């Protein structure tokens, strides 16, 4: 059953980043599945109004004030009129918000529930519990997620974190990891892909020969990350001189920019390592592969990470991965592709040494990594799992199917749940959910929800539904029954006949 | 009741010419015509009342020169300056005029003058907006938007065919909503020309006009591609 889905986030192209590409890739794949997807984000400089991207993905760049790191100022209700207009004209059924730090997401989920739409939230990051900023963010998250149909997290660690932060029922949180476009991250020796995405015939049948490293061959270690504190740049600064001192034939390539870049450069100058460490500065996402294939080992010293897409990309490029054992990283790659280290200097040096030794002994078949990663991660798979979540919340799947048989039997596991497996839209039920948020916060949130509801009723008078034009869907081409029939049937049912003049 | 949602009317005087008019004028019925007549009467009354008040205020001020007795004695011939003064004097000294004088006496000038001006402006406001698009094959298109008041004429703009790069329907944010609109891209100009800019009719109208313009502006291709 095709849905009309609105992806809402403050973060979207042209700004680079993980959430941005996640939304884009997921949307593209969902469109391929026959759904209709639009993206609602705020206006970027030089990027305003309504735009179309590849595949007919429609992007609404809503003109709003940008406050901090491209997140908009939280104006709880001012977004509602325009959001309602977009949702009605596109006939949206499911609102899917992304990113904890995006106020657009929170507002959209609140308004969507008020309007009687299904809401899904995807969390992409880990947060602490102790500092003032986190407490505030967590309270806001708790507010929004008090009344949401389902939550998606990118890793199990992230799920644990989100469940604790927002006091959620773990059953309504799914884990759907990120993915990579494996075709864009192939190793140097890979024969490449033909236009239709399949590997070229020569590569398919003849296995790629193993690269043999001699004892004196240079091993290149690649680091690509934004140079921030939380990405572990300090750890890197401490570890590089020791690794270089221990292993004579090792070079480093470091790409990325950030506030810690100066510290890194100072370290290089102090130790006179300019000839062995190459600093590339910021690289664009499409150039990442070209940097990665120059190395043998990928070093990822991050201190916190919800998923770590970059290590999947590195493994896909055929690099042996050395990474810190934090956050969701241990879930990402199988053991034979990685060497784990504790997030401390000594252990990182030791782990890198282990990785270099393993490569020199030719014990690691890095040339096989690409095909293995390709089997593990694909956006198509992510889209299908997301689709299942949509099915579950809209009632297409039964509660037992979606949440498991145990959950279906225990009738009391979630208070104020309406029909089996589906959150009730009744205002009183919603208020009950919000009221539980805290002694004062609960009442404040209830007030917000009531005002939101009154605003909704006011808008129905001021801007009646029948005065809003229904937008035309992107015309889809008929697929000439070549691949799988089920997919084609779905597309055909959504086929929009293109009017000829 | 006096205005409707924007409605489309197409006129096709010849196969190569078409005019699309979008306006808020409702279909005229007898009742509506009577109502319009009434509004015109109301406007006249309001206008005369405002002018009378202003004149009374002026007559009260020390700067005013009293109207000469000679002109007020007997009715002079029609269509002379004296006759105008005679009429004004009579209205001013009538019971209605006295009421106006009294009112003018009580109202301070700072209040009277702006409100009278606002009323005078308001009675000239047009009730309906009419916007049109005239397409002439081989020549170009002309957009026109009716003026706000009855005092000025419609603004028109002619765009010759060779300057037209494209005509298409687009969507944009306008206030708290997203609207469809028809645009003409003009060669050598930074901004596009929006057709029906003040009414911004609904999608169906915009699409009809777009099809019509595309069909009429260019010669149908002989090769039968389309």
UniProtKB/TrEMBL annotation, chain A:
<keyword id="KW-0337">GPI-anchor biosynthesis</keyword>
<dbReference type="InterPro" id="IPR013234">
    <property type="entry name" value="PIGA_GPI_anchor_biosynthesis"/>
</dbReference>
<dbReference type="GO" id="GO:0006506">
    <property type="term" value="P:GPI anchor biosynthetic process"/>
</dbReference>
<dbReference type="GO" id="GO:0017176">
    <property type="term" value="F:phosphatidylinositol N-acetylglucosaminyltransferase activity"/>
</dbReference>
<keyword id="KW-1133">Transmembrane helix</keyword>
<keyword id="KW-0808">Transferase</keyword>
<keyword id="KW-0472">Membrane</keyword>
<feature type="domain" description="Glycosyl transferase family 1">
    <location>
        <begin position="210"/>
        <end position="351"/>
    </location>
</feature>
<comment type="function">
    <text>Catalytic subunit in the complex catalyzing the transfer of N-acetylglucosamine from UDP-N-acetylglucosamine to phosphatidylinositol, the first step of GPI biosynthesis.</text>
</comment>
<dbReference type="Pfam" id="PF08288">
    <property type="entry name" value="PIGA"/>
</dbReference>
<feature type="domain" description="PIGA GPI anchor biosynthesis">
    <location>
        <begin position="42"/>
        <end position="131"/>
    </location>
</feature>
<feature type="transmembrane region" description="Helical">
    <location>
        <begin position="440"/>
        <end position="463"/>
    </location>
</feature>
<dbReference type="Pfam" id="PF00534">
    <property type="entry name" value="Glycos_transf_1"/>
</dbReference>
<keyword id="KW-0328">Glycosyltransferase</keyword>
<keyword id="KW-0812">Transmembrane</keyword>
<dbReference type="InterPro" id="IPR001296">
    <property type="entry name" value="Glyco_trans_1"/>
</dbReference>
<protein>
    <recommendedName>
        <fullName>Phosphatidylinositol N-acetylglucosaminyltransferase GPI3 subunit</fullName>
        <ecNumber>2.4.1.198</ecNumber>
    </recommendedName>
</protein>
<comment type="pathway">
    <text>Glycolipid biosynthesis; glycosylphosphatidylinositol-anchor biosynthesis.</text>
</comment>
<dbReference type="GO" id="GO:0000506">
    <property type="term" value="C:glycosylphosphatidylinositol-N-acetylglucosaminyltransferase (GPI-GnT) complex"/>
</dbReference>
<dbReference type="InterPro" id="IPR039507">
    <property type="entry name" value="PIG-A/GPI3"/>
</dbReference>
<feature type="region of interest" description="Disordered">
    <location>
        <begin position="481"/>
        <end position="501"/>
    </location>
</feature>
TrEMBL record, chain B:
<dbReference type="InterPro" id="IPR044215">
    <property type="entry name" value="PIG-H"/>
</dbReference>
<protein>
    <submittedName>
        <fullName>Gpi-c transferase complex</fullName>
    </submittedName>
</protein>
<dbReference type="GO" id="GO:0006506">
    <property type="term" value="P:GPI anchor biosynthetic process"/>
</dbReference>
<dbReference type="GO" id="GO:0000506">
    <property type="term" value="C:glycosylphosphatidylinositol-N-acetylglucosaminyltransferase (GPI-GnT) complex"/>
</dbReference>
<keyword id="KW-0472">Membrane</keyword>
<feature type="domain" description="Phosphatidylinositol N-acetylglucosaminyltransferase subunit H conserved">
    <location>
        <begin position="132"/>
        <end position="197"/>
    </location>
</feature>
<comment type="similarity">
    <text>Belongs to the PIGH family.</text>
</comment>
<feature type="transmembrane region" description="Helical">
    <location>
        <begin position="30"/>
        <end position="55"/>
    </location>
</feature>
<keyword id="KW-0812">Transmembrane</keyword>
<keyword id="KW-0808">Transferase</keyword>
<comment type="pathway">
    <text>Glycolipid biosynthesis; glycosylphosphatidylinositol-anchor biosynthesis.</text>
</comment>
<dbReference type="Pfam" id="PF10181">
    <property type="entry name" value="PIG-H"/>
</dbReference>
<keyword id="KW-1133">Transmembrane helix</keyword>
<feature type="region of interest" description="Disordered">
    <location>
        <begin position="1"/>
        <end position="20"/>
    </location>
</feature>
<dbReference type="GO" id="GO:0016740">
    <property type="term" value="F:transferase activity"/>
</dbReference>
<feature type="transmembrane region" description="Helical">
    <location>
        <begin position="108"/>
        <end position="127"/>
    </location>
</feature>
<dbReference type="InterPro" id="IPR019328">
    <property type="entry name" value="PIGH-H_dom"/>
</dbReference>
């Amino acid at each position: 059953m095709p849905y009309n889905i609105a992806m809402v986030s403050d973060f979207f192209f042209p700004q680079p980043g993980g959430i941005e590409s996640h939304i884009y890739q997921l949307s593209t794949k969902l469109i391929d599945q026959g759904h209709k997807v639009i993206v609602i984000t705020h206006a970027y400089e030089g990027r305003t109004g309504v735009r179309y991207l590849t595949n007919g993905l429609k992007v609404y760049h809503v003109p709003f004030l940008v406050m901090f790191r491209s997140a908009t100022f939280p104006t709880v209700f001012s977004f509602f009129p325009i959001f309602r207009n977009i949702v009605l004209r596109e006939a949206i059924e499911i609102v899917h918000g992304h990113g904890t730090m995006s106020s657009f997401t929170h507002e959209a989920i609140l308004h969507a529930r008020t309007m009687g739409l299904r809401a899904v939230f995807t969390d992409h990051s880990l947060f602490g519990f102790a500092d003032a900023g986190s407490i505030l963010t967590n309270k806001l998250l708790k507010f929004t997620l008090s009344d949401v149909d389902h939550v998606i997290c990118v890793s199990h660690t992230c799920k644990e974190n989100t469940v604790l932060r927002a006091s959620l029922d773990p059953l309504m949180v799914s884990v759907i990891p990120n993915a990579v476009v494996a075709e864009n991250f192939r190793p140097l020796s890979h024969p490449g892909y033909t236009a239709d995405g399949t590997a070229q015939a020569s590569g398919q049948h003849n296995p790629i020969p193993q690269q043999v490293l001699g004892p004196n061959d240079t091993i290149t270690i690649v680091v690509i990350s934004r140079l921030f504190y939380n990405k572990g740049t300090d750890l890197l600064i401490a570890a590089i001189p020791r690794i270089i001192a221990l292993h004579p034939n090792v070079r480093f390539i470091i790409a990325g920019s950030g506030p810690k870049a100066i510290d890194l450069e100072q370290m290089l100058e102090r130790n006179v390592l300019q000839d062995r460490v190459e600093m590339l500065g910021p690289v664009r996402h499409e150039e990442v592969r070209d940097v990665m294939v120059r190395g043998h080992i990928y070093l990822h010293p991050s201190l916190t990470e919800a998923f770590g897409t970059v290590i999947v990309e590195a493994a896909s490029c055929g690099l042996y991965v050395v990474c810190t054992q934090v956050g969701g990283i241990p879930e990402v790659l199988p053991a034979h592709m990685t060497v784990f280290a504790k997030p401390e200097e000594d252990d990182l040096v030791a782990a890198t040494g282990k990785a270099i030794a393993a490569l020199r002994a030719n014990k690691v078949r890095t040339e096989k990594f690409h095909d293995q990663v390709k089997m593990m991660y694909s956006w198509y798979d992510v889209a299908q799992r997301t689709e299942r979540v949509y099915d579950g919340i809209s009632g297409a799947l039964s509660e037992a199917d979606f949440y498991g048989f145990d959950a279906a039997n225990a009738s009391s596991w979630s208070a104020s749940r309406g029909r089996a497996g589906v959150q009730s839209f009744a205002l009183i039920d919603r208020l009950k959910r919000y009221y539980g948020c805290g002694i004062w916060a609960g009442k404040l949130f209830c007030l917000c929800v009531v005002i939101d509801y009154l605003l909704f009723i006011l808008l129905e008078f001021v801007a009646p539904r029948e005065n809003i034009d229904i937008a035309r869907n992107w015309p889809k081409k008929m697929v000439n029954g070549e691949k799988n029939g089920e997919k084609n049937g779905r597309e055909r049912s959504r086929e929009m006949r293109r009017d000829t003049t | 009741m006096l205005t409707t949602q924007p409605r489309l009317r197409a006129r096709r005087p010849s196969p190569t010419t078409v005019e699309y008019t979008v306006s808020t004028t409702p279909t005229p019925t007898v009742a509506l015509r009577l109502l319009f007549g009434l509004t015109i009467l109301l406007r006249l009354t309001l206008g005369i009342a405002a002018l009378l008040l202003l004149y009374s205020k002026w007559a009260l001020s020390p700067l005013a020169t009293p109207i000469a007795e000679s002109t007020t004695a007997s009715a002079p011939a029609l269509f002379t300056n004296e006759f105008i003064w005679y009429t004004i004097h009579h209205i001013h000294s009538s019971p209605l005029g006295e009421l106006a004088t009294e009112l003018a006496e009580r109202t301070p000038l700072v209040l009277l003058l702006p409100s009278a001006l606002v009323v005078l402006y308001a009675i000239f406001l047009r009730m309906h907006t009419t916007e049109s698009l005239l397409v002439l094959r081989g020549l170009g298109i002309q957009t026109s938007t009716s003026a706000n008041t009855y005092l000025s004429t419609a603004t028109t703009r002619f765009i010759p065919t060779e300057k037209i790069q494209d005509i298409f329907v687009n969507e944009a944010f306008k206030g708290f909503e997203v609207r469809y609109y028809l645009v003409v891209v003009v060669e050598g100009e930074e901004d596009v020309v929006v057709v029906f800019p003040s009414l911004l009719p609904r999608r169906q109208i915009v699409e009809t006009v777009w099809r019509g313009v595309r069909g009429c502006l260019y010669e149908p291709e002989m090769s039968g591609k389309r």
